[in-house]
Design a protein that fits this description.
The chain is α/β, with parallel strands linked by helices. The protein has helices at 2-11, 37-46, 104-116, 136-157, 200-205, 221-229, 244-261; strands at 19-22, 32-34, 54-58, 64-72, 77-85, 94-100, 121-125, 164-168, 184-188, 208-213, 233-235. Strands 8-7-6-10-9-11 form a 6-stranded parallel beta sheet, sandwiched between helices. Strands 1-3-4-5-2 form a 5-stranded mixed beta sheet. Helix 3 runs parallel beside helix 4 and helix 3 (104-116) runs parallel beside helix 7. It is elongated. The termini are far apart.
Length: 262
């Protein structure tokens, strides 16, 4: 009876939302999954689902799992997985965001929008002009908050993998992915000699691109020199100066756009 309700709700006139949730555990068809209290509360009181409603689970490893809510109460929230769907919504190019530490609410925006737009990873790094300094328990709590923002953005946007997030105390500690295999490392800077149009062909043909974005005051001269020694090329992106929280999402959207129409 519960299973037939799930089918009715998918296509009937009173169709309910098919919610997506991230579950950090192995999943397989036929499995019953007990949801954490926080997720159960979200289903009951925020989006008002009930037993029989369809649900999609993913664990960030591959594809997603479709099923239905079997029980939803204060004491237990239980889902039944019916099938695995081998779907891949990840971009063909892995774009890694290296974001200079800035005000916390700006980082929140960068992580949310960047995840929705397909970023493969985030490194938040202290630069010479960074205003944010984190260490110890404060850093641990902030990383937990950032991970939660990434998970919620992945759930909403339909992603099947989670971008990883890390903190770097020094610019030279940043990890640049794919350089040995022809990957690009680009540092956004308004006075750079190379512009986005000039990099068009390279952006089409690389599997890994690292984008370094400065803080509110921009990269310092010392930062730019450090980035240069690490193999970064300066990149100008249009005639206007972008806010630090706008730059990474704008570049992500632009790169994916030119790759999708070429």
């Amino acid at each position: 009876m519960v299973k037939s309700l799930a089918r009715t709700h998918e296509f009937g006139p009173n169709c309910r939302m098919n919610c997506r949730l991230y579950i950090a555990q192995p999943l397989e068809p036929g499995q019953k999954v007990s949801l954490p209290d926080e997720q159960g509360h979200y289903l009951r009181h925020v989006i008002r689902l009930q037993a029989g409603d369809p649900i999609t689970l993913f664990n960030g490893l591959n594809g997603e799992y479709h099923g239905y809510i079997e029980q939803l109460s204060k004491h237990e929230s239980l889902c039944h997985i019916e099938e695995f769907v081998d779907v891949n919504r990840e971009p063909s190019c892995h774009i890694h965001i290296i974001q200079a530490a800035c005000r916390s609410e700006k980082i929140d925006t960068i992580l949310q929008k960047g995840t929705e737009l397909g970023a493969a990873s985030f490194q938040i790094v202290r630069s010479e002009r960074s205003s944010l300094k984190l260490e110890g328990n404060r850093l641990h709590k902030r990383l937990e908050r950032w991970q939660k923002i990434i998970i919620e953005a992945a759930e909403q946007s339909g992603r099947t993998r989670l971008p990883c997030i890390s903190w770097r105390d020094r610019l030279r500690d940043v990890e640049v992915t794919g350089m040995d295999a022809g990957g690009l490392a680009l540092a956004l800077h308004p006075q750079a000699s190379a512009d986005f149009g000039a990099m068009h062909k390279q952006l089409l043909n690389t599997a890994d691109t690292s984008l370094a974005v400065g803080p509110e005051g921009g990269w310092s001269r010392r930062d730019l020199q450090t980035l240069k020694t690490m193999g970064f090329t300066g990149l100008a992106f249009g005639p206007r100066i972008l806010r630090t929280e706008t730059a990474a999402p704008a570049l992500l959207a632009a790169i994916h756009a030119i790759r999708s129409i070429s």
